[in-house]
Design brief:
The protein is α+β, with helices and mostly antiparallel strands and 220 residues long. The protein has a single domain, classed as Alpha-ketoglutarate-dependent dioxygenase AlkB-like (Jelly Rolls), CATH 2.60.120. The chain contains three helices and 16 strands. The protein is globular, with a radius of gyration of 16 Å. Bound molecules: 2-oxoglutaric acid (AKG) and fe (ii) ion (FE2). Keywords: Dioxygenase, Iron, Metal-binding, Oxidoreductase. InterPro entries: Alkb, AlkB-like, AlkB-like_sf, Oxoglu/Fe-dep_dioxygenase_dom. One of its GO terms (molecular function) is broad specificity oxidative DNA demethylase activity.
């Protein structure tokens, strides 16, 4: 949605940078098309089963490595994981470089140097999907995570690295937004409290719902 109040890029916490609208309409459409392809089986999009017996409300497909709670593996149901495309790594690298220009903590983060992502988690949220507060900590690398959002707005809850409790802040992630988290907040708890149906722009090729891609370095 076009913002009535412009959202300038902001460092939300040391090492956490939001760059609103960084992905232009053409790139967003390309991502939607690519996600549609990746979603197809084998090794396609699915709801992740949790060890406690529950299933996540988000649907996920992984590139490069498959994430299952709480580790990365190379195959899903005996099928090799889809490759991580070079163009996506390149796009992420440019986003990270721009984010580092906006954050002294990220600029100074040695783990961001030579950033070379080898896994992407592609999450699809329908209107009812959410993601509870968690840390992205199954990577063996302290390299920043680069996140792309397309489609309906998601309310992203950015917590702190100490625990699930406050302080946190809720930040809308709109279509085209880039969020980078690294530096001292690489392990900050975060989640998505809700998706705002009908807020996605037209022209991305997305029907209803929200896509989020997180590009990561596994260090494996
Ligand atoms: O959907 C988002 O914005 C966050 C996704 C996330 O935290 C994850 O995939 O680990
Ligand atoms: Fe996460």
């Amino acid at each position: 949605m076009d913002a009535l109040i412009p959202r300038p890029p902001a460092e939300l916490a040391p090492g956490v940078v939001l760059v609103p609208g960084w992905l232009g309409p053409g790139v967003q459409a390309r991502l939607v098309e690519a996600c549609r392809e990746w979603a197809r089986g084998p090794a396609g999009m699915r709801r992740v089963r949790l060890p406690g017996g529950g299933v996540m409300s988000v649907r996920t497909v992984c590139l490069g490595w498959h994430w299952e709670p709480y580790r990365y593996v190379r195959a899903v149901d005996g099928v090799p994981v889809k490759p991580f495309p070079e163009w996506l790594a390149e796009l992420g690298g440019r986003a990270l470089a721009d984010a580092r220009g906006l954050s002294p903590a990220l600029a100074a983060d040695p783990a961001a140097d030579g950033w070379d992502p080898d896994v992407a988690l592609v999450n699809f949220y329908d209107a009812d999907a959410r993601m509870g507060l968690h840390q992205d900590r199954d990577e063996r690398s302290a390299a920043p995570v680069v996140s792309f959002s397309v489609g309906d707005t998601g309310v992203f809850r950015l917590g702190n690295p100490e625990g699930r409790g406050r302080p946190w802040r809720d930040v809308p992630l709109e279509s085209g937004d880039v969020l980078v988290f690294g530096g001292p907040n690489r392990l900050a708890f975060h989640g998505v409290t809700r998706v705002l149906p009908g807020t996605g722009p037209s022209g991305t090729g997305m029907g209803a719902g929200r896509l989020n891609l997180t590009l990561r370095v596994t260090g494996l």
